[in-house]
Amino acid sequence: MVSTSRLLTDPFLQLPTENSVQVVWFTEFEGDRHQVEYGENFEQTAIAATTKLSRVREDQKSRVGEQTEDGQIYNAPVMREIWRHEAEITGLTPNIRVPYRVKSTEGIGTVSSDEFTLAARPQAGTPLKILLTSDHQLMPLTPTNLQKVVETVGRVDAVFAAGDLINIPDRASEWFDDNRGGAFFPSLQGRANRQLDQDDLKISSNGGEIIQHAPLFTAIGNHEVMGRFSMESDLNEQFNDPYPQQAAEQLYAQIKTQNSAQSNTQNAKQLDPEEQQTRELWLKDNTFNTDIYQEIFTLPESQSGGEKYYAVSFGDVRLVVLYATNIWRVPSLEPNAKGRYRERQDDLDDSTRWGYGQHIFEAIAPGSPQYTWLESELNSPEFQQAKYKIVMFHHPPHSLGDNIVPAYTDPVQLIDRDVEGRIQSVRYEYPKEADYLIRDVVPLLEQAGVQLVFYGHSHLWNRFVSASGMNFLESSNVGNTYGAYQEKQRAVPTGYQEEYVATGNPNNLQPVVPSLAPLQGDNGQSLPYISSNNITVFSILDTETGTVDSYRFDAKQPEQGVTKFDEFSLTEGRE
Questions:
Q1: CB under 8 Å to 273, separation ≥6 — which residues?
Q2: Phi first, then psi: what are they for 99, rounded to 5°?
Q3: Does the bond joining 244 to the residue before it have cis omega, within 30 degrees of 0?
Q4: pLDDT tens digits for 523-546?
Q5: For residue 534, which phi and psi values (nearest 5 degrees)?
Q6: Residue 2 above 50 pLDDT?
Q7: What gap in Å lies between CA 549 and CA 531, rounded to an integer?
Q8: Could you tell me how many helices (H) and strands (E) the chain has, helices first?
Q9: Taking Cα atoms as reference points, which of 86, 72, 83 lies closest to residue 4?
Q10: Which of 119, 224, 328, 343 would bridge 426 by S-S if both were Cys, CB 3.0 to 4.6 A apart?
Q11: Which phi and psi (to 5°) does residue 457 adopt?
Q12: 479, 515, 513, 546: which is closest to 149 by C-alpha?
C-alpha cells in the first residue's frame, strides 16, 4: 500500500560542481511536491524533478516484506513503482558545508528526512579522505564494513566505488529494502539492520551514515549490467543471459526478413523513426543494458560514453572511470555448462541460447570510442595538472583472484563439426597476447603518470606496484571472498590452445606484502592478500598525506577492533 509515512531512502549527494550539488532520494509514491530545504535555518528551497524508474521489479527470489525464513516469494517478475527525486542546490561556496533536509508531500501528508550537510566540489589543496570500496552485493558483512569506516575515520569526503554494488540491477529490493537488512542504500546511509547469528559469528550492524554527506562516484561492474528482458523467467536467469550486440543485430535482421520479406541488408539508417524505435527497444530487451544503474545515479558524463565512462576533478584528485567489465561465466567444461570456455551440449543447434563466452560489454580496444576518449582525457589539462591521478574500473589487471583468468579480450569462437557439417562443440579461447587491459590500457596509464589503478571483482584485498611506480589496488573483500590463488589452483581447462595460469598473478607483477600488519599463513609467512569470509576490509585515500591506508576488522574477534594493516604513498616513485 502506498504510504507517505516514510522515504524509501535518505537523500544522497551526486555530481558536485564548484558551486552546486545534486540531492537525490527515492519514494514509493509519486507525490505532489518534493523539495530540499537548506541553509542556516533551512530558509532556502529547491524543488525536485521527479522521474519513475523504468525497469525495477521483484520476483521469485526477492527478499521483501515481512521477515520470514524464505522472504516474500512471487510467482513471476512483477513491476515495482519507485520514484526518484532530484534537486540542484546552487549558490554554494567551496569548502563550506550547508545543512539540508528533504521533504516529500502527497495530498495532505508530508514526510521529512533527518538533517544532513552538503557542500560543493572541494577546491584543490583541500585535505580529503575518500573511501575506496567495491563489490558490496548485499554481502553479510557489508553493513559492518561501512559502520567501521565511520567509527574509524569519521566522515569521509567522497566514495569511489569500483562496481558490483548489488547482485541483480533490476531487483528493486537489492537497492532499497531487502528484508535481510543489508540493501545498498541502507548500508551506505546507516539505515541497515543486518543481524548475523551463527555459531562463531554473532554481530549486528547498521552500516554507516556516509552518502548523505559525501558524493558517490561509481564504476560499472558486471553486476550493474542486466541481460535479456522477460516477465516470466526469474531475474537471476535474466541477469545471467546477456546476448552480444552483434549477434542480436543479426538475429533482428533475420526476424525482419522472415516477417516482411525485406532484405537482411537493411540497416537502421533506412528505418523510419517508429521502426527505429522498435528496433532499439528490441535490441535492448534482447541484449543487455545498464538502464537502472544510469537512472539511479547522476554522474559526470563523457561525450562518447555518457555516464558509462567519465572523468571528474575532486579537490586534488582527477578521477578517470572506465567501463571495463564482461559477463562472468562458470569455468566448468561439463556438457551442461554454459560457460566461459564452452556452450551447453543441448544448445548447440540453437545459437539464440548460446552464451558467447565471457563477452565484453563495452569495447576498450585501441580505436574504440572509449579508448579514444581515454587517450584524450589523459592528455587534457585537467588530468595533466592534477596532483593525484587515479583510474577506477571493475575488472582486475593484476590479481591473485580467480576472475582475472582468462585474459580480458573478446572470446575467439571455435566450432567443431563432423563430416556432415553438424556442430559437435562450440568452444572459446582468449588469447593472452590480446588482453586489452594489459596490452593496451595499462601502458597508456603508465605513460600518463597515473599513480593509482583501483578495481575490484575478485572479492579480496591485494596490491601491486609496477616498475615505474604505478600502484594497483584491489580492495573488494567486504567480508566475502572467492579465494586467493597463491597456493591453491584455479579451475582452468587443459588441452585448449591457451595455457591459463592456475596460481598467482598471470600478468607477471608480484603482490606486495602489507606494510604494517599482514596476516600470517599457516606456515608463519606474511600473506600478500586478505581473502576471508570473516574479515572485512576497507581503504581510505588521504589526500593530505598522499597515502592510501587499508584497514581490516575480524567479525569473529570484534574485541580486537579495527587494524590498519597497510599504507602506501601515491607519489613515491612517480614524481
A1: none
A2: -70, 150
A3: no
A4: 899 999 999 999 999 999 999 999
A5: -115, -25
A6: no
A7: 18
A8: 11, 28
A9: 83
A10: 343
A11: 90, -40
A12: 479
pLDDT computed for residue 200 by the predictor = 80
CB contact at 8 A, 54 and 295: yes
CATH 3.60.21.10 fits 12-244+287-569, yes or no: yes
Average pLDDT over residues 140-144: 96
> What pLDDT is stored for residue 4 in this prediction?
53
Give the whole-angstrom CA distance, residue 23 versus residue 42: 15
Place 270 in a pLDDT band, splitting at 50, 70 and 90. Answer: low
Q: Name the one residue in this structure whose C-alpha cell is 582475472.
A: 404
Which cell numbers in the block locate residue 265?
A: 541488408
Phi, then psi, of 236 in degrees rounded to 5: -65, -45
What would the pLDDT profile of 478-508 be if each residue is shown by its tens digit?
988 989 999 889 988 888 888 889 999 999 9
Average pLDDT of every residue of the chain: 93
Backbone angles phi and psi of 443, in degrees to 5: -60, -35
Please write the tens of the pLDDT for every residue from 291-337. Answer: 999 999 999 999 999 999 999 999 999 999 999 999 999 999 999 99
User: CA-CA distance, 206 to 195, in Å (whole number)?
Assistant: 9
Instruction: Specify the residue for cell string 525482419.
Output: 256
Residue type, 40: E
Grid cell of 356 as nine digits: 558467447
Q: Where are the domains of the chain?
A: 12-244+287-569
Question: Residue type for 56, please?
Answer: V
Closest CA to 496 of 434, 436, 428, 432: 428
Q: Please, which residues have CB within 8 angstroms of residue 161's CB and are 6 or more apart in sequence?
A: 133, 134, 136, 216, 217, 218, 219
Angle between helices 273-285 and 245-260 (to 10 degrees): 130
- DSSP strand pairing (21-27 vs 12-14): antiparallel
> Which residues face 22 on adjacent strands?
14, 88
Query: Which is nearest to 497 in space by CA: 422, 435, 406?
Result: 406
**DSSP, residue by residue, 537-572:** EEEEEETTTTEEEEEEEETT-GGG-EEEEEEEESST
Residues with Cβ within 8 Å of 358's Cβ and at least 6 positions away in sequence, in order, are 326, 327, 328, 329, 340, 406, 411, 428, 430
> What type of residue sits at position 509?
L
Distance CA 277, CA 101 (A): 40
H-type alpha helices, 225-359: 235-239, 245-260, 273-285, 291-296
> What is the three-class DSSP state of 313?
strand
pLDDT average, residue stretch 408-436 = 96
